[in-house]
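Researcher: Here's the sequence for the chain we discussed earlier.
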Amino acid sequence: MSDALITDQNAKPVKYWHWLEDKRIQCDLCPRFCKLREGQRGLCFVRGRLHDQMVLTTYGRSSGFCIDPIEKKPLNHFYPGSAVLSFGTAGCNLACKFCQNWDMSKSREVDTLADAASPEQLAAAAKEYGCKSIAFTYNDPVIFHEYAIDAAIACKEQDIKTVAVTAGYVCSEPRREFYQHMDAANVDLKAFTEDFYRKIAGGDLHTVLDTLQYIRHETDVWLELTTLLIPGENDSNSELEQLTNWVAEHLGSDVPIHFTAFHPDWKMMEIGSTPASTLTRAREIALATGLHYVYTGNVHDQQGDTTFCSECGEPLIVRDWYQILDYRLTADAYCPKCDTICAGRFDEQPGSWGAKRQPIRLAKSMLV
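Model: Thanks. This is the structure I predict for it:
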């Protein structure tokens, strides 16, 4: 739990909670099950108890908006080359010592939320700026569940797709409601041991694996995975073999996975950056396991950026970082050489947003 008390400002009543016999209320959104007295916040910082009910304190507020290439989420098989309007709020329901967005996800200051937009304003802005989708990212959208869902509903009315960039740490009932409204998700599979999740991420692995199987087999959401490889923590051959074998067996060979490089941050400053050779080794292990689409990230690696045909190995989408250099898929997403379909969601032609990043401001003044 957080020691910061909740006030009436911007507090929106939410569901997924129940009373306990000792007069506390329990949050049932994620497996932390925070038990709160009046005025207390959960560990995520943004949900808490006010006037004997659970509230969300960041509805309609953001740490900032930016238009990114969709490949930066990372999603390589979801409308490649398109622009995505990205935003997050503050707080997180995990406690990763290596967090690469700690200034937002670990924030305990509402001053971080310097911009604001209603769900309808978000959808209108995405339309105005020519974005194919909106991404709930930077911190986990699970904790601003209601805001994300309302934004997704507004986006569908404007024919804008919605993307969740998440750690997958959520209970089954809110998970079911959440993914009814999402079009794509990149789930951060942080490691493949309970020990790592317990000691370094502050969560548990089995919940995340359950979420992955739910998304893959019980929804129409396009799914990709990301694993940040931390030297000496989750990058051994044996762990990578176990992880990729599990993905192949339980999710299928067509689910893309991105191995990305760690850099020293937050509470893990003593560990060095991930060598490029580690990412290459992880990619080779995953391909040998039978996964069809394996990528490397946070390093310059054109081979690891490129989408290859799963059957004949033909380069289908050649990338350099987030820039598409060559696009050879047919209009209906088949390999032009062997006529094998490429798994994903594609338009007839790729987007033309390129690698640029464009911060934007949606609110004329901060909500108070």
